[in-house]
Amino acid sequence: MSAHPPVPANSTSAAQAPGGRVRVHHLQKAKAEGRKFAMLTAYDTMMANLFDESGIEVLLVGDSAANTVVGYSSTLPITLDEMVVFAKAVTSGVKRALVVCDMPFGSYEVSPEQAVTSAVRLMKEGGVHAVKLEGGTYFAPHVRALVAAGIPVMAHIGFTPQSEHALGGYRVQGRGDAAGALVEDAQALEAAGAFAVLMEMVPTEAARRVDEALHVPTVGIGAGPVTTGQVLVWQDMLGLGGGKGARFVKKYADLRSIVTLAATAYHQDVVSGTFPAPEHEFED
């Protein structure tokens, strides 16, 4: 595996926030100037702080915490109360990055009013700077209501995990003629006020059509290299889960092996009596 040196937070290849926090308009400027930005999930203070210091522009408090942290079989069971806790943990560890929080299943679908009520909790109690919701044109009124309430919104189209049962499982979206509908969804969400549109598991050419049709930046996960931003689940990016992983994931480390080796060594030291050693003891 090749080495990937850290990129300083003030790198000119990233969305800039001179002397302060990354804001929505910095992401817009990145698209206008043909620059890229990086986005990673985060669910706790320590990892959020590490990613923030590494120069990652956007942190997503993802409902993927349902799988990676809580151990649910899908994202559907995670609650708004749980997301507030994760959001608070992440924002406590961040000084620079823009923090976006997923609105969990059941927290916004009923009405635009429900969406605003839920998002206000994420901002007031969780301290996040923006929210993300899944769905196409049908949710444009929800986006419009959120933006009118002063809540920045990132839209999410393509494969939307909260709708996995309706979509027939984890399947690529936007192939062939369906690409046109993807563009229409993206344009409707932009018109409603979304500051960015995330596309998941769509063909590169479809993602290109969407990106070229929008003034706001796009973010991709399994959408090829044509978007302004890219996002990955951090446990996938660092190889914590093991196994082959999804096609669109690049592993930058084998954290599972590193943690397993360290935990095994600790266990051996404890059972053999070599830890704690004299240097770990307190004297009278």
TrEMBL record:
EC number annotated for this UniProt entry: 2.1.2.11
Residues binding Mg(2+): D63, D102, E134
Active site, per annotation: E200 (proton acceptor)
Known cofactor(s): Mg(2+)
Top-level enzyme category: transferase
Taxonomy, superkingdom: Bacteria
Keyword Zinc-finger tagged: no
Family matches, as InterPro entries: Pantoate_hydroxy_MeTrfase, Pyrv/PenolPyrv_kinase-like_dom, Pyrv_kinase-like_dom_sf
Family from the record: Belongs to the PanB family.
Protein name according to UniProt: 3-methyl-2-oxobutanoate hydroxymethyltransferase
Source organism of this protein record: Paeniglutamicibacter kerguelensis
